[in-house]
Amino acid sequence: MKIFAIMKKELQSFFYSPVAYIVFASFLMIVGYLFWVILISSRMASLEPMLYNAAFILLLASPVLTMRLVSEEKKSRTIELLLTSPISPAEIITGKFLACFTLYLVLILLTVQYPLVLSAYSTEFDMGPVYSGYIGLILLGAAFISMGLFASTLTENQIIAAMVSFGGLVLFWIFGWAKHAFDNAFGEILGNLSIFDRYAEFLRGIVDSGNVIFFVVFTLTWLFLATRVLESDRWR
Amino acid sequence: MIEMTNITKFYDNFRALNNINLKVEKGEIIGLLGPNGAGKTTAMRILTCFIPATSGSASVAGYDVFEDSLEVRRRLGYLPETPPLYPEMTVGSYLNFIGELRELSAGKRRERINYVAERIGLTECLTRVIGTLSKGYRQRVGLAQALLHNPEVLILDEPTVGLDPSQIIEIRGLVKDLARDHTIILSTHILTEVSMTCGRVVIINEGEIVAVDSVANLERAVSGKPAWNICIRPAAGKDWRQLVEMHTGAGISDLVEMPETLHFKLNLEKAEDFDDLFRNLTGAGHVLREITPVKATLEDVFLKLTSAEERKEAA
Question: Is the domain of B161 the same as that of B41?
């Protein structure tokens, strides 16, 4: 399968370069610190504050993982190889997305120790919000990566790609603030687009199908747009 | 096998190709020749479905590059101007990745990688990281990539750039060998390369085809009247010049007088004139040291055709 060929190649190049290791190391360091400091200060067996902060760290880190996905191919002209091979832009984008998403899942998996510690040492620890929180975190990651991947198709400059995805993600993160500013339909619409508000519901233990669908549609939309941008290179 | 019909390509307002028509038969090696910026790479990118033409149509192996792009791409091997390599991969894993993209089964991939690596002299490099290879080896890896799936059509954009002379000879030999069951288009601005490998030459200048013919025909067309470079050692006391002029009507140019010998270029109306002249010169005691027929080289052809084009533009 050509999608898996792309995926395998991308995963390899993540680990050939120091980028993945550095993102992993700094993320785990920060999350470890957050877990410790929150637990010590609140003395509550809750994972919610940690997952909330982890999501914001991931918002900062994911553009670093996604920025090179397509822009590096454009810069080094290997995109010419891919686009003249019998593989479609959709397959290229899907393969790259899956590679980055797999990496993301591994990163998330490495934080599972913290809820395990909590459940082992606290008397009445509720695993429900942990499960829903992790579902939220995984969906959130797919959203982050798809938008970053889209930004990466726009330019051959990795820094620009990172900045575009970072800007976009932060904007979607804080869209919810409009709800407080406008008490009308406009505020409502912007509020509905807020990825933070929707993620926060998962942290409270609610898996709303509307929220799940939102994240899936959000991800697919950016992947679709990324595919179109890659295709359009052939038209211009 | 390859057909381009009325292909025109604009980059914004710049016309890169103008009304290109070209037909390449199966098993041919075509050389695209032209100065930098003539449109060679653009033409190749259109054929490989990397960019679309502004107007006109092109087909490879009977499939339209625009309508049936996937089928075209299955049948193509393409070496772009910059070899498309991933510097962090090893040669072996890179070729394996290409094999996967080219829809080869695992067994077939191993077999083809070994075969191609041997043909191109990469066998010892399979475990090396591409980023550490020299330019010549990178070029070879790029070529291996294009050949891996044994495509019907090979499109090579300046395949010998960056290679050392012995590698260039090897690669030329390889290209000639491949031509038996592949159709090849290669571009270059090295003229000897074309005369050594290609059956036909397409000369492109400023986006237009100015000539399509075999190298021999092109050379003949430009050289015109027969001419020889001659070196004689004149016999003492005898006038060689009068003798020569008697036969040729003063067709002497580029005269160089050395202490012992004379060098000049002889331009004749007909080749037969030379026979009499030769007999009379030796008969009079002059010694002929050297006679070489003057052939127009591809350089001459090229310069003549491309500068003719410029004159036409100016007029």
Answer: yes
